[in-house]
């Protein structure tokens, strides 16, 4: 038996037997909530627990080995003197730079981390890849899960472009269901994020 899918929020909710059915339920559905499971029993338990409890993995209590599988890693940098922000993504295994954006004036690190994750998701979606994405920002990961950047940054004449990018990113998240896992890069275990700008 293949994977089964739980849809908590979509056109059709409950346990769906195949990806095609799940896709019809969630694609283009604003705020869709769904996840795949290996067995029907796991799916039934997850359906009862709810979306957020089912997708939030408990943090391991012991040190985990350095990830060694195909994945992308993203990071952002914010200049405390100028207020400029930039972000980039790299391939975890090859360390090849996949994209770099900025600098953007009057930004924040959290906004950069959020935009980096969504940028990576959009590129992976375009290439039909479900590779996971690592970020060392809990805040940005939570914003992606909520499909909204909960920033307190004020809009200024200098950072208007950033707010346009934020609106585009939020719209993309609401209209593009994705299977990619967004994982926390554990700096205390593995050292600096490979996408780090090295300016500390």
UniProtKB/TrEMBL annotation:
EC class: hydrolase
GO CC field: cytoplasm
Pfam annotation, one family: Cauli_VI
UniProtKB keywords: Cytoplasm, Endonuclease, Hydrolase, Magnesium, Manganese, Metal-binding, Nuclease
Localization per record: Cytoplasm
Cofactor descriptive note: Binds 2 metal ions per subunit. Manganese or magnesium.
One term of GO molecular function: nucleic acid binding
Domain Ribonuclease H1 N-terminal span(s) in chain numbering: 3-45
Protein's UniProt name: Ribonuclease H
Record-listed E.C. numbers: 3.1.26.4
SUPFAM superfamilies in UniProt: L9 N-domain-like, Ribonuclease H-like
Cofactor(s) this protein cannot do without: Mn(2+); Mg(2+)
Location (main, coarse): cytoplasm
Family under the similarity heading: Belongs to the RNase H family.
Function of the protein: Endonuclease that specifically degrades the RNA of RNA-DNA hybrids.
Binding residue positions for Mg(2+) 1: 75, 196
Annotated residues for binding of Mg(2+) 2: 113, 136
InterPro entries, A to Z: Ribosomal_bL9/RNase_H1_N, RNase_H1_N, RNase_H1_N_sf, RNase_H_bac, RNaseH-like_sf, RNaseH_sf
Catalytic activity: Endonucleolytic cleavage to 5'-phosphomonoester
């Amino acid at each position: 038996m293949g994977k089964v899918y739980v849809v908590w929020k979509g056109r059709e909710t409950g346990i769906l037997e195949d990806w095609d059915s799940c896709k019809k339920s969630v694609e283009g559905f604003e705020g869709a909530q769904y996840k795949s499971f290996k067995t029907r029993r796991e799916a039934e338990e997850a359906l009862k627990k709810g979306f957020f409890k089912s997708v939030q993995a408990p943090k391991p209590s012991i040190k985990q080995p350095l990830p060694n599988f195909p994945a992308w890693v993203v990071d952002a940098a914010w200049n405390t003197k100028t207020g400029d922000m930039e972000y980039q993504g790299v391939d975890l295994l090859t360390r090849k730079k996949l994209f770099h954006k900025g600098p953007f004036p009057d930004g924040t690190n959290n906004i950069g981390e959020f935009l980096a994750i969504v940028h990576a998701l959009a590129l992976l979606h375009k290439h039909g890849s479900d590779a996971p994405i690592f970020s060392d920002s809990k805040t940005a990961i939570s914003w992606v899960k909520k499909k909204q950047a909960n920033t307190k940054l004020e809009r200024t004449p200098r950072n208007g472009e950033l707010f346009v990018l934020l609106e585009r990113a939020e719209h993309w998240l609401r209209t593009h269901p994705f299977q990619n896992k967004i994982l926390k890069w554990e700096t205390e275990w593995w050292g600096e994020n490979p996408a780090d700008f090295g300016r500390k």
